[in-house]
Every structure is written in structure tokens, then in C-alpha cells.
Amino acid sequence: MLDYIRKISWYILSNKKRYALIVLFLLIANVLDIIPPQLIGRTIDLINNGELTKEITRNILIIFAAVIVLAYIVTYWWAYLLFEGAIKIESIIRSRLMRKFLLLSPSFYEKSKTGDLMAKATNDLKTVNMATGFGIITLLDSTTFLLTIILVMGFTISWQLTFFALLPLPLLAIIEQRLGKMINKRHKSSQEAFGVMNDAVLEVVEGVRLTRSYVQEDAENRRFHSLTENYLNKFMKVEKLDAFFQPLTIIVVSSSIAISFGYGSVLVNNGLITVGELITFNVYLNMLIWPMFALGMLFNIMERGNASYDRIQNVLDEADVLNTSGEMSVKETNFNFNEVTFKYPTGNRNSLRNITLELNKGETLGIVGKTGSGKSTFIKQLLKIYPEGTGELIIDGVNISSLDRKKLREKLGYVSQENILFSRTVRENIMFGKPDATEEEMMEAVRLSAFDEDLKRMPEGLDTLVGEKGMSLSGGQKQRISIARSLIRQPDILILDDALSAVDARTEQRIINHIKNNRQGKTTIIITHRLSAVHHADKIIVLENGSIVESGTHKQLSDGEGWYSEQNDYFITGG
Question: Residue 292 to residues 79, 153, 169, 184, 419: CA-CA distances in angstroms?
């Protein structure tokens, strides 16, 4: 419990005034709460002694009403300040988490499930909100209220009666602490199961067409049912422990009340306390039900919050495997690969081997080769999204490790194989590449990507919604929107990673011609399986098992006797 408070102490310390006011208002509310029982006890004693008058009755009622109104106002303000603080810490951590998601390298996402990350950004954050809001309110209110009542019972009624009535309390605290530790462990397990289930929901939604085409609806339903049952079982283990708190509280409070009545009656018979004081004491004991029950909830809520905070903090503490120390920027786009060898962080073999290549500004490089030969891995070195391998990658005379990652990427326009589109309009997807682009720049990018004819057939034109991940579009349309998104930036280096695979030969040639004519003096890298897309390239390399096995122009390679020549002959003759 205190471990969680320590973990969020950075937020409490940065909001000292807020929490100081909360404690102040809470103490005032506690003092106001103990006045009514005192009035009730005094009134009973006045009735027993025949001393109650109309004037005293009126004064008691006025004080009673004033206390209720003041207690309401004070309680409103400390609750408002506390829950506002809980929402703010949730917002701060969510922003930090999103910023971390945007900065983490692909190797992190290769080992993390999307559903689990979503669970951390939603369920776990909501639990942290609960622990910081309701948890702290419970901690402050239950402890201060409990202490206030005990002091009042002792000083105004009897320390002897207070001591014996509260004997069962330590046993409750010990049991609840142990239950809290068990809840922490089981809550982490249930949240992990929720993450797996969440990931399954994403897979089902994203792959619904594939599932239906293979008639796997029943199998997927059974798989999801199994994951749901697993989460339910783990969640119920937490709830079973949680269910112990209320009965324990009732047993302890009932024991205290029984002791109070038994020993209190002895004290009344001996004339040590009055009947009114005994009634007041038992009213206070009944008021202890809330702080006692709250203490039980406190261990539960805080341990859940502690477990969720740890899950979130694990992401925030994730070290970036990339070298981010570079500060230099790129002016020219000449680059050299000198004996570059690279292995993925999660891989066990080299994906690139001894790559040596030079490309000058304004030249076009074509990269071809068999599937899995290392073509995409090659260009990922330029994107600086993985740790550098051995050898040197020099851009504009500077080692890539010394270049500022953000400034380098500003020079690049990258169209990946995945053709990722957002669930927005065509306009918004294209302008994602350059948010401040003019209408003329956007229409030019549409023209260069050969998307203008398709655009005319769309019901809302540029304002047509593309659907979840572009589901309402064909593969070729998605590719061309992705190309337009890169071209609108007018990048110094344009990288097309198999970005023309879903368009027909005529459209492909139109896009290539546009790129040739409009990117004079700028560098272009084209990865493709169609040799027609790189006929015009100044240099073409053939990759096999991560190594360059052929290099030259289209004519030089076609006249040779290697893989490129074979593929070219196959293309010309049609197999």
C-alpha cells in the first residue's frame, strides 16, 4: 500500500498545495462529523436529568443544521480536489505512455502484443486512476477519521472502554495486509490475461474477412471463448480474495460493539460513564464501520493500483536500443555502405552481410532479389529504426550514428510494404505527410501517384473515408495514397519498398515516369519484384541471403548470366 504512495510521490510533491488543502478540508470534515453524536449523547443526558428546555432544543437543532451544511461544503471540496487530481495523473501517465509508444523502436513491438499494450493504456490506467482517487481518499479519510474517533472516544468518554472495544482491530489489519499482497500478484496475472484477450479481439476484427473466407468462425469463437474463460477464472481469483474484506470488517466491528455494550454496561453501573455517553460511544463505534470497511478496500484498491502501475512503468522504463546521441544534420544525400553487416535484435543470424555501395545525390537505386533476401532490411538501415550493425553507413560524409534521427527522417519519404492508412479521409491520409500542404501541392501529389482518376470515381472525392486501415479501398489504391503521402513532402530521398506490387503495368509505368520527370536532382530507392520498375535506375543491386551478388545498370545485368538476366528473360518471354 505505502509502496504505491511512494511510486506516485512525484505527482503528490508537484501538487503539494492541492493535497495540503485536501488534508485540511478532510480534518475539518472529521471534526464536524464527530459533533452530532456528542449532541445526541448530551441531549439524552439532559432528558434523563429533566434539564432539556425549548431554548436548548432550538440551539441543538441550529448547531445540528449548521454542522450538516458545513460538512457537505467541506466534503464536496476535498472530494472534488482529490478526484480532479486522480484524473490529471491518469492524463499525465497516458500522455507519457503514448509518447513512449511513439519513440520505442520496432524491436520493442516485435516482442509485445498490441492487445496487452492497449490494456495498459486503458484498463491499467483506469486502475491507477482508481487507486489515486478513491484509494487516496480512502487512505486519508479512513485513517484520519479512525484516529479522530478513537481520540474523541478516549478523551470525552473512557480510555478503558476504548481500549477493550478496539482490541480486534490489529487482527483485521494483519489479515488485510496479507490479502492485499495476494491480490497484487493475482491482479497482475488477470491483467495479463486481459491483454491476451484484448489482442485476440483485435485479431478477430482485423481478420474477419479471412476468417469468413476459410469458414473458421466456429474455431475462432471457441478460441476466444477459451481466452475469455481464462481471463474470467483469473479475475474471479482476485474477486474471491476481495470478497473476504467485507465479512471480516463486519465480524470485527460486531465484536467491538459486543465488547462495548458488555463492558460499557459495567462502567455505567459503576457510575464511571453515563447512559448518554455509552450511547454516544456506540454511535462512534457504528461510525467506525466506514473506516474499517474502507481499510479493507484500501488494501485491495492500492494493491491493484500498484500492480497496474508496475505494468505501465515497465513500458516507460523500457530502454531505447537505438543510439540517440547523434546531433548532426544532413545537407546532401550522398551515402556509402562500407562493409555493413546487420542482425536484428531478436534474430540469430546476419540479415545483411558485408554490404558495400555508393549512391550519389540525384541517382536512382534499384534493389531486387528473391523473397527474404534482405531488401527491406537494407533500406531500414537508412531509416535508423534499428541499432547500427558493424561497418560504416556514411551519409553526407557523416556516420549515421552521429546524425540526429529526427532530422535524418525529415529528409526521407518512405512507402512501406504494409501501406498503412488511418481511419480518416483520403485528404487527411495524404496530408499526414505534410500537414501544412496547400491544395495545389496535394493535387500534384495525387497526380504524381496516378491516383487522380480513382479520385474522380470516389463519392466524396478527397473527403471520402477510407475505412479501418483502408478496408474500403483496393490494394492498388492504398499503395497510391501511400505514395502520394510521401511525394507531398518532396523528400530528398524517396524510398519505395515494393510499393507498386498491387498496380497494373500501365499505372506502374505512369508513376515511374512521373518520379523520373519530377525528381530531378533527388535520390530515389526502389525495391521491387518487377524488373520493369527499375529499368531506368542508375544502379541496380541484386541481393541474396543478405549479400550483394550482382550490381550494375539494367543493360549490364541483362547482358550477364546471373539471377537478374534470368528474371529479365523470363519477363520478356513470359516464362
Answer: 19, 16, 8, 20, 57
- CA gap 554, 531 in Å, rounded: 9
Contact yes or no for 301/131 (Cβ under 8 A): yes
Kindly tell me the burial class for residue 325, based on how many C-beta atoms sit within 10 Å of its own C-beta (0-12, 13-18, 19 or more).
exposed
Residue with cell 549479400: 547
- Residue 349 pLDDT more than 80? yes
State residue 1's pLDDT score.
60
Q: Is 379 helix (H, G, I), strand (E, B) or coil?
A: helix
The pLDDT mean for the chain works out to: 85
Length of the chain: 575
Boundaries of every domain in the chain: 2-184+241-316, 363-389+402-411+493-575, 419-491
pLDDT tens sequence across 220-262: 888 888 888 988 888 888 888 878 777 877 787 788 888 888 8
CATH number of the 419-491 domain: 3.40.50.300
Q: Which CATH architecture describes the domain 363-389+402-411+493-575? A: 3-Layer(aba) Sandwich (3.40)
Domains 363-389+402-411+493-575 and 419-491 share a fold: yes
Class of domain 2-184+241-316: mainly alpha
Q: Decide: pTM greater than 0.85.
A: no
The CB-based long-range contact list for 321-325 (8 Å cut-off, 24+ gap) reads 321/105, 321/107, 321/108, 321/345, 321/386, 321/387, 322/105, 322/384, 322/385, 322/386, 322/387, 322/405, 323/387, 323/388, 323/401, 324/405, 325/401
User: Which grid cell sits at 188?
Assistant: 497482475
